[in-house]
Amino acid sequence: MQDSNLVNELREVNLSYLLLAQRMLRDDFSKGMYRLGLGKDVAGLLVELSTSQVLSLASSNSLICGFRLNDIALLGALTKDGMNGTLKQVHASMMLAQQEPDQVMQEVSQ
Fold first, then answer.
1. 3-state SS of 41-102?
2. What is the percent of the chain with per-residue pLDDT over 90, rounded to a whole number?
3. Rounded distance, CA 38 to CA 104, Å?
4. Are residues 9 and 43 in the same domain?
5. Contact at 8 Å (CB) between 108 and 64?
6. 103 is in which domain, residue-wise?
7. Any transmembrane segments, and where (predicted)?
8. What CATH code is carried by the domain that includes residue 17?
9. What pLDDT is recorded for position 9?
């Protein structure tokens, strides 16, 4: 039963991510690419997915999005006590911007 619940939750996260990604990319393609950490090719494919394709992709038993908090320096910057909220956001944004586009997608596919 737990496995079934886990799979259902993964599918919900996948669907939420895909819908959010499409909305961000449709609102402002360049900003969406930056915030999602995607390259132009992947972003272009995501924005063009039909509803049935989104549902099919979301129903995967694996998490299709990746978290960019796999860098110890970035995680440390976000949790450091000595910075106020604005400075934390700026520092984290700078570190995320240094990551290669599609780096997360490549790591997930390996």
1. HHHHHHHHCCHHHHHHHHCCCCCCCCCCCCCHHHHHHHHCCCCCHHHHHHHHHHHHHHCCCC
2. 47
3. 8
4. yes
5. yes
6. 67-110
7. none
8. 1.10.4000.10
9. 94
Q: How far does Cα 13 stand from its chain's mean position?
A: 11
What is the domain count for the chain?
A: 2
Structure letter (DSSP) for residue 100: P
Q: How far apart are CA 58 and CA 17, in angstroms?
A: 9
Q: Which of 95, 52, 53, 99 is nearest to 75 (CA)?
A: 95
Confirm if 10 and 63 have CB atoms less than 8 A apart.
yes
Q: What is the pLDDT of residues 52-68, one digit of tens each?
A: 999 999 998 899 987 76
Q: d(Cα 46, Cα 32) in Å, to the nearest integer?
A: 11
- 18 and 30 Cβ atoms separated by less than 8 Å: no
Joined together, the tokens standing for residue 105 give 């997608």
44-to-18, 32, 41 alpha-carbon distances in Å: 13, 11, 5
- DSSP, res 110: -
